[in-house]
Design a protein that fits this description.
CATH class of the largest domain: Mainly Alpha
Radius of gyration: 23 Å
Strand order of the largest sheet: 8-7-6-5-9
Distance between the termini: 44 Å
Largest sheet: 5 strands, antiparallel
Bound molecules: fe (ii) ion
CATH architecture of the largest domain: Orthogonal Bundle
Strand content: 5-15%
Helix content: 40-55%
Number of helices: 13
CATH topology of the largest domain: Hypothetical protein af1432
Shape: elongated
Oligomer: single chain
Number of strands: 9
CATH superfamily of the largest domain: Hypothetical protein af1432
Number of domains: 3
């Protein structure tokens, strides 16, 4: 009786315990029953390397051991929280920090720094999950949600630019507090369809400086942090505010925050304008290079974040609908977790697909699909954050 058969992509559900062990052609154990395949990339590697399902592990002593392991895995409480709960928790922390800064309570800056520490820590282990969570986060506060997203974006860009960890930390703190000069008013203005009043226009023009004043009054002395907040609306061509400085006169970390701010704003709903996909927003970043956005920063941003950023929904060539879950082999072949199969059936556990396979290639980015348990299935896409 054959003890093993070749593993195919259809045998494995990403993120679910394996019901059998996976071995190589020599029978060497690669993955024990009960372990997880956590990404489309890992699955592709297993298939490409021609690995085998150890059918013996489904029966007899080995099978019983495997079953026990699977049961134990299922019964064990899941460690960590979903990326969505993680983003929500950071939004709550940031709100508390903002109120502390408003009151001059003294620990506001420390609370902002605590969120920045958590972003750096989580981004080291779960960068794609963070990006997905930030992109899909549905919160009440536009400013707070966008600020967390920007913190994650600048950490990614900073790493790509080989900026040191301490310097990146200051930039994250600035991203987290860039709009503190008008955060209470901004959420209301965001949904306003009527033109801005003269008072609102004046507030917008002055909010970078007001933010710096508030942070300084609360005890922030980090000049990189403060300068980034003060310059986050300056533009490469001098069309920004409040000073209208341009080019090299804008410090590099402020240019980084500016592009993250523009991108994070475009990918969120504002007034009667619907949120753009990452593909649409990146096109705008590309078209704005050399004008609003520094040329080098625009190129690096597009390269690092990509047109298929985690959290965007996509249609695949085989008719399936999925969500981008991570980086793939190249910019056009991201990791995708399918949530609706070709016959329209909505899945409760997302299934990874190899988008470098022509049948599963990405056709386009699409709006949020109709799925009866969207949050439930999205919770299965990314690893939990410890
Ligand atoms: Fe702003």
């Amino acid at each position: 009786m054959k003890k093993k058969r070749l593993l195919t992509k259809n045998d494995v559900q990403i993120g679910k315990p394996l019901p059998w062990s996976v071995v190589d052609s020599q029978g060497t154990l690669l993955l024990k029953a009960g372990m997880l395949v956590t990404s489309a990339r890992q699955l592709s590697r297993l298939v490409d390397q021609q690995t085998y399902i150890d059918t013996a592990s489904m029966s007899g002593t080995a099978g019983r051991a495997a079953t026990k392991l699977v049961m134990a895995k299922r019964d064990a409480p899941k460690k960590g929280i979903t990326t969505f709960d993680w983003v929500s928790a950071q939004v709550d922390r940031l709100q508390s920090a903002y109120y502390a800064v408003e009151k001059g309570a003294g620990d506001g800056p420390q609370q902002i720094k605590a969120v920045a520490i958590l972003i750096q820590k989580a981004a080291n282990r779960n960068a794609s999950a963070l990006m997905g969570g930030c992109t899909l986060h549905q919160g009440n506060s536009y400013t707070l949600s966008k600020s967390i997203h920007m913190g994650v974006l600048v950490e990614q860009i900073g790493k790509r630019l080989q900026v040191g960890e301490a310097a990146r930390f200051s930039v994250i703190c600035a991203a987290l507090s860039h709009d503190i000069g008008m955060w209470l008013e901004q959420d209301q203005m965001r949904m306003q369809i009527a033109p801005l009043s003269p008072e609102q226009s004046a507030l917008i023009q002055s909010h970078p400086g007001r933010g710096v004043e508030k942070l300084r009054a609360a005890g922030v002395e980090d000049e990189t942090w403060l300068s980034c907040v003060g310059m986050h609306h300056e533009r490469a061509d001098g069309s920004g505010y409040p000073e209208g400085v341009k080019g090299e006169a804008i410090i590099p970390p402020a240019r980084m925050i500016a592009v993250a701010d523009i991108y994070a704003a475009m990918t969120r709903q504002r007034g009667d304008r619907i949120a753009m996909t990452s593909k649409g927003a990146q096109k705008e970043v590309f078209l704005s290079r050399g004008e609003m956005i520094d040329v080098t920063m625009a190129q690096i941003f597009i390269k690092e974040i990509g047109i298929f950023s985690p959290g965007n929904f996509v249609l695949l060539a085989n008719g399936e609908v999925g969500v981008v879950s991570g980086r793939g082999g190249n910019a056009a072949t991201p990791e995708v977790a399918v949530i609706i199969v070709a016959d329209g059936r909505a899945l409760l556990n997302a299934q990874g697909r190899d988008t470098s396979d022509r049948n599963c290639s990405v056709v386009n980015v699409i709006p949020c699909p109709d799925h009866p348990d969207l949050q439930k299935v999205l919770d299965t896409v990314w690893e939990r954050i410890a």
